[in-house]
Structures are given as C-alpha cells and as structure tokens.
Amino acid sequence: MGAAGAAGSSTSRPHSGSEPVTFGKNIKLNDDTGRGRQTEVALAAGPNGTLIAGWMDERAERTCSFSWSTDGGETWSKNVTIGNTSNFVGDPAVAIDGGGTFYAGCQQYIQAGRTGQIKLRTSKDKGVTWSEVSEIQSAPDKPYFGGGVEPGVLFVSWLGNPGGIKRSIDMGVTWETTQTTGNIIHGTAITTSTTGLVHVPYNADSDRNQLRYLRSKDNGKTWETRRDLLPDMGRFCFQCQPRQHPIVGAGADPTGKFVAITWSSTMPDGEGDDDVFVLYSKDGGETWTDPIRVNDNTTRSRQFEPWVGVDTYGRVHVAWTDYRNNGDNATYYARSADPEKGFEKNIEITEERGTGDLDFLGDYKGVVVQGEDVVVVWQDTRNDSGDIYVARAIGAAGPP
Fold first, then answer.
1. Tens digits of per-residue pLDDT, 34-44?
2. 152 within a domain of the structure (yes/no)
3. Is residue 278 part of a domain?
4. Which is it for the CA torsion 34, 35, 37, 42, positive or negative?
5. What is the DSSP letter of 191?
C-alpha cells in the first residue's frame, strides 16, 4: 500500500477522550499531480483499522476515485477508480461490512436516454484486488451505502420519487425487495448496529421540507412505518455560491442506541444564514431532541456541509465547512457528551485555509469513529479548486 502521509502513531495516545481534541497532520488523498478538481467526499470505517474514502475526481475524465487505509488512517493507498461510460458520474458511496469487504460505488447519471445506474466494485482482500464494475440499481441520483455488522451485508439507498433502500446479504451479488422511502430530495444516511437497529434519515418533499426517518429493528429484514421527525428543516440556500442543499448526515454508536442526525440551514436559533444543527436520540430513535445548534461563532458567516459520528460512549462528533475566517474555506469540528447540554469549543481541523469563492464545494463531509480515534475527510481548496484531505484525532473517542 502506497503511503500518502502519516497522522501520528496509533500506539501513542497523547490524550484520552476527556481531554481537548487535537487533530493530526492533514493528509492529501488524491494522488494526481495536476490541478484537476476533486469533490463530493464519502468515508466509511470497518474492522481492524480499515477505512475507505471516495470522491468525484476530475483530473482527466470524470470518475469516482477511492483510497483506503488498513492502519486506522496513518497511511493510505494509491487511488483506484470506477471509470465512466457517459462522462457524467459522481456521488461516490463507500462501505465496509463486518467481514472486512470493501464496497466502492458511483452514480452514473441519466444521459442520452439511458436510465441512471448505481455502479459497484468490491474487494475481499482489503484493496489488493477489486471486482469488475457491476450495476446494482437504476436511480436518478445520490446513492448511499451502509455496511452491515454481519459479513456480506450491504445496504444501498437512492433518491427519487419514490426513492428506496434495499439490502444484500451476499456482498452485492443479489438484492432483496426494495423498501420505498417516498419522495427523497437529496439522499439519505444509513447507520447499522450490533443490535439490528438500522437508522435512515432523509430530507423529503421539497414543498414541506421535512426531516423524515425510517427504522429497522431486525437489520433491515423489515421496516417500520416512516416518521416525520421535523416538519420544517429551515431554509436552504440553493442559490448560494457554493450551494447549500438539504443534505442529511447521521451517525450512531455501535449498538444503535445513541443516534445523531445533522444538517445545515437557516433557522431561528442561528445567525441568519447557514448554521449546523443536530437532532439526538438516546433511546435508539424512539424519541428525539429539538434542533440543537453546533457552531459557536457569534458573527454572521456560513457553516454548512456537516457530517456526524457517534462513539461507544454516546458522544457526538460533528465536522463541517466553515467560512467564519473572512470567507475562507476551512473545516471545523465540535464534540459533545450530550448535545442537549451543549458542544465543546469549535476547533479548526485544516492546517491551511483555501478560497471559499467557489461555485461548488461538494455537498458532503465524512466523519467516522475508528476505535478510540475520530477521522474526518473533506474537500480542501488550499492548492486549487478541490483536493481531498483527511485528518485523525487520536483518542478523541477514547474513554471519558
């Protein structure tokens, strides 16, 4: 595996989960040497220190590219791609199941009269070899993957009217019946667990702008009736540069008991523009808090494109794009042991800031808990219009 950089030793723990969080070196994941744009990130964690990241890559023809780590994020592989046949692909999706199989996905959009397709490659040997590309679902846009705790289990969702979610128990070779989600506007998030709880939040019905939620208690064999958790998610800045869409992120602890949902919008408790909010559940999705603001800036500036992870102790880890520094593009982070009691002081992850004067910044972040560490991946503009960077906070998810 080619090393793209190092973020510190996994055997040296400079602090426990009760001390202030410190992120290590920012590591560039895309291995091109030119100025092609990389954007639309995704990140997943698996057993034994495995991680996989994906992004839309425009160094030559537009593809979905991927890099992975087998040592908790200290070193990363050379990039592998899902090539395109239409020159219009994007929205990569990644997952790792409980047996360690890697899943790398990519959306091929509708073009020249052909229905859009979600494409998939798998690796059973931690990235040493990869399968040929297969098509697993027709869809207009935005796939999302969730790796099951059991080996071979993979969930895939997609947007549309209706959108849907379905499960495979044989590493994506065959698929079970689709569970409809109704009208999905901008994709889902999927969290799986050791207890069989699967949490799937998403933005639905653009006229009513709801936060909708689907849950399974038996690892996706059956699904409960979908619920509306929030009747109004706030105002989204479609016309902003970069844009802000009603993207919903989610994370859960390994048991699925502690669950967090995040998004960014303009709401009454914010600064009058994009701010980051979470909903939090301590009982496996039975009950939820009201929206809680995460970013702590006191002057008006945009905070958007958040994602969230939850550790073994129920602590919530949120990262997002932050323009509080005179409109520069930076990535910030905050942690909370209980969001209803507030978040710790926001900290900056990026070692260097880049331009924020862009028409597109990729819509997503990736945040995962890997053992006692927290790993964040983002689109960075310190060099050009887009590179993919990752950083690791050693011990941030350790014992409090």
1. 889 999 999 99
2. yes
3. yes
4. positive
5. B
By the 10 Å C-beta count (0-12 exposed, 13-18 middle, 19+ buried), 287 is classed as exposed
SS3 annotation, 88-101: CEEEEEEEECCCCC
Residue 164 DSSP SS3: strand
The domain containing residue 380 runs over which residues?
A: 27-393
Each residue's pLDDT tens digit, 44-91: 999 999 999 999 999 888 899 999 999 999 999 999 998 765 667 899
Report if pTM > 0.90: yes
Domain count, the chain: 1
Cα distances (Å, whole numbers) of residue 99 to 50, 70, 95:
11, 14, 11
What six digits make up the tokens of 27? Answer: 């590591």
Cα-flanking dihedrals φ and ψ of residue 339, to 5°? -55, -30
Task: Convert 183-214 to b/e letters by CB count within 10 Å (16 or more is b).
Answer: bbbbbbbbbbbeebbbbbbbbbeeeebbbbbb
Tokens of 390: 């990752």
Q: Which one-letter amino acid corresponds to residue 316?
A: V
pLDDT in tens, 208-219: 689 999 999 999
User: In the Cβ-directed half-sphere of 261, how many Cα atoms lie within 13 Å?
Assistant: 27
CATH number at residue 214: 2.120.10.10
Q: Which pairing describes strands 387-393 and 27-28: parallel, antiparallel, or unpaired? A: antiparallel
> Other CB atoms closer than 10 Å to residue 391's CB: what's the count?
23
Cβ proximity of 116 and 166 under 8 Å: no
Residue 13 is assigned to a structural domain of this protein: no
> Is the bond into 268 cis (omega within 30 degrees of 0)?
no
Residue 149 DSSP one-character state: S
In a domain, 6, yes or no: no
Q: What is the pLDDT of residue 84?
A: 64
